[in-house]
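It is worth pausing here to work through a concrete case rather than discussing structure prediction in the abstract. The textbook approach is simple: state the sequence, then state the predicted structure, then interpret. We follow exactly that order.
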Amino acid sequence: MNTSFQQLLSERFEIAFNQIHGSLKKLAKNTTNDKFSALLRLSSHHRMIQAFQDELYQYAKLRNALVHEKKAAGYYIAEPHEEVVQRIENISKTLSKPNYALSIASKDVITFDWEDDLDDVMSKMKQFPFSQYPVYREKECVGLLTTRGMVNWMTGHVASRIVDLSDIKIRDVFQYEQKHPITFAPKNLNILEAEDIFKDYHQQKQDLEMIIITENGKPEEAPLGVVTAWDIIEVDYVV
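Step two, the predicted structure:
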C-alpha cells in the first residue's frame, strides 16, 4: 500500500473518530469530562451506543496510536485497514444522523373521543386489540384508555347487573383509570432523543407509557404515531 493511500485512510479514520467524539459530547449531557472513554461511558444508556461500544473502545486505542505516536506530518505508526475505516465512517454517520422516532413508531393509532359510546368502543377494541388507546376531549388528548381500566369499570358494574353499554360513555369509564404518564413530541424527534425522554421520566420514578408524536408536539394535534419503551428496546442497530 502506498504512503499517500495509507495517509488517506488514517486521515479518514481520524475525521470519523472526531465526528463520533462530537456526537458523544452532545449525548453525554451535564459533564465537563471531555475524554472519549468517559463520554462513551456516560452515553452508554443509549442502545445505539451499547451496540457499538466495544468497537469504539478499540477504535479509541487505535486513534491514540495514530495521533500520540505521530512523529511527523503524514507519518503514522499504525495503519487502519480499509474495512475498519469504512466501518467507523458508517458508525459516525449513524450517530450524527440517527433515524427519526417515527421510523420505529406504531402509526396505526386508534383513538377515542370522551363522548364515544362504550359499546362502539368495545367493538373497535375487538377489531384493534391494543392495550392502550389515546382519548381526546374537545380535540385535545387527555390520557389513555386501557384494557385494565375497562376491566376495573366492568368489575364494579357489569358483573353485578345487566348494563346497557349504549348508555355508557368513555368519560364514565375514565374515572376508573389510573394516571398513565404520556408526553408529546414533534415529528422531527429522533430515536436517541426519544430514549432520553424515557430515561428522564425513569429518573423521576415515573414509567412513561408512550410518546405521542404529532406535527409540532402539541396534545391538540392528531397523532402521527406512538413510541413505547418496547419500541426503543426492539430497535436493531446494524450498519
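Step three, interpretation. The chain has nine helices and six strands. The mean pLDDT is 87.
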